[in-house]
Structures are given as C-alpha cells and as structure tokens.
Amino acid sequence: MILAWLQFLVCVVVIGFAGPALTRNGDRIAQLTGMSRGWVGLIMLATATSLPELYTGISAVALADAPNIAIGDALGSCLFNLVMLVVLDALSRDEPVWRRLDQGHILTAGFGVILIGFVGALILVVREGFDFRIGHISLYAPMLLLLYFIAMRAAFHYEQRPRETEPQAAEVPEGVTLRGAIGRYCLAALVVGAAGAWLPFAGLAVAEAMQWKTSFVGTLFVAAATSIPELVVTITALRLGAADMAIGNLLGSNLFAILVIGIDDIAYRGGSLFVDISPAHAVTAFAGSIMAGILIVALLYRPGNRFFGFISWIGLALLTVYLLSSYAIYLHGH
C-alpha cells in the first residue's frame, strides 16, 4: 500500500513542479509572438496544463488497458477544473470574481456544456447498440475532434472582435529568446509526459491496494493529479490580477479534455472506448455540464453576496455538485 501511494505521490510532485515551467515558458512564447492574453489562457496555457491528461489517457488505453482510468481522468479533470472556481471565489476577497470576468467566457463555457454533455450521452447510448465504427475506431471519435476545433474556431473569431484594452502582461525577462522559450517549453512537456504516462499504473496500484474501483480512482485521484498544473496556474494568474487568463485556462482545459477523449478512443485497440467503461461516468459528464451551466449563470447574473463571508452561492452550488457526483461515482462505478 505504501509503495502504491509513493508512486502516485511522486507523479503528483513531478507534475506539480513541471507544470509551472510549462506555463511560464508558454506565456513567454505568447508574449514574444504577440498573442493576446485571452488567447494565452484558452490555447497556450490550457494546452500546456492539459498535457498530463493527454499522456495519461493514451497510456491508460494503449499500455495499461485501463479505459476507466482514461475516461475518469478526462471527465474528472473537467469537474476538478470547474470546482477550482470555488477557490477563485474564496481568494477574490476585494470583489466577487464573477464581477471581474469578461462575459466572452460564456462562449467557451457554452461549448463546454455541449461537448461534455455529448460525451455523457455517448456513454449511455453506445452500449445500447449505437456502436458505429470502422475497424477499432469509433465514428464518434472524429466527431469529438471536429467539435473541439469548431469551438476553437469560434473562440478565435470572437477574440478578433474589438475588445476593451486589457492589462499588459509582465515584460519578458532580458535575454529570453523565442527559441529558448520553445526549448524549455518542450523539455517541461516531456517531463510532464513521463509522469503522466506512469499515472494510470500508479492509479491502478492505488485502486488495488485500497480495494477501490478504478472508475472512482480515475475520476477523483488521477484527475486531481493531472489537474495540478491548472490549479497552480489559476491561483498564480488570479494573484497577478489576470482573472480572465485563469478562467480561460480552466475552460480551455475542459474543451481539451474532450479532445483527449476522442484521441483515447482512437488509441484504444479493444474497440469503442465507450462500450468498455462504466456507465457511471455519465454522472460525471452530466455533472460537468451542470457546473458549466452554473458558471454561465454566474457570468450573466454576477452575484455579489457571500455565505460565511468568503463563498458565494455560485461557489457553494459548484462544490455541492462536485461532491455529489464524486460520491455517486464511488458508489456505482467499477
């Protein structure tokens, strides 16, 4: 048991150290190429901090034969990213974080509702005879990839519209070149990839040692581990006064997680990934859609009241949905 948890914690620590390096160098690449701050959060940071989910998912389906770990990690990361909004809500002491955010995030959150909800529907209907595929590749995999790129294209065109001038990002340190930033970015990605590739094996060891279900381990523990870069980036961005970058990172990571599910389905040699996973993952998917919907309400309504002086009813609702869905996957997963 100790060895299993030690493996898991080593992966967590490695990702926790390499994640900020990914973010820092991704941000420098963005500054040196003239990208906007919103696009940094949605594309550069979201892609960088989501690499653990990508590597873990491919490793889980192609090497560890653990499809529940793969789908649980991707969907669990969506929930974990959204529950981080509770942390932002609590840390934003001077003004509710919902009142500091650009309403343009509604577009990304809306696509999150669509994509995550679509995955939840697939989990339920594919096992009922709607398993269409060519060879071992499900026809739903390219659909998920297409939906992701449609969302990114829509976000790109929205980003091109005239916007209010945003705060300038910090200056790039003297001596930092684009080539050097790209090199450090790739090196950090390799480190995160190595830890992410080992995570499913460590997760299976923890599940066996603790006699827990793999779907629960994937949704809660592996997802939390692979979401550590998002957590670090989000808190850092908020402290720097870049709340929009923080939210863009979280919502972009959720969209990227759905792209990862499509890639995992292609990499899974046993047939359709959606056939061989626990139907309880649909609970996680629908909970993610509900939480994204709650965020849309917050962005439109912009509530200011707080419970106990530090959390709004939006944050309380997000936390409640997260805890209830985690308990449901613990009871009914396998």
TrEMBL record:
It is found in: Membrane. Pfam families: Na_Ca_ex. The keyword Transmembrane applies. It comes from Novosphingobium beihaiensis. This is Sodium:calcium antiporter. It is a multi-pass membrane protein. Residues 4-151, 187-328 form the Sodium/calcium exchanger membrane region domain. The chain crosses the membrane at residues 39-63, 70-92, 104-125, 137-156, 182-207, 219-240, 246-268, 280-301, 307-330. Its main location: membrane. Keywords: Membrane, Transmembrane, Transmembrane helix.
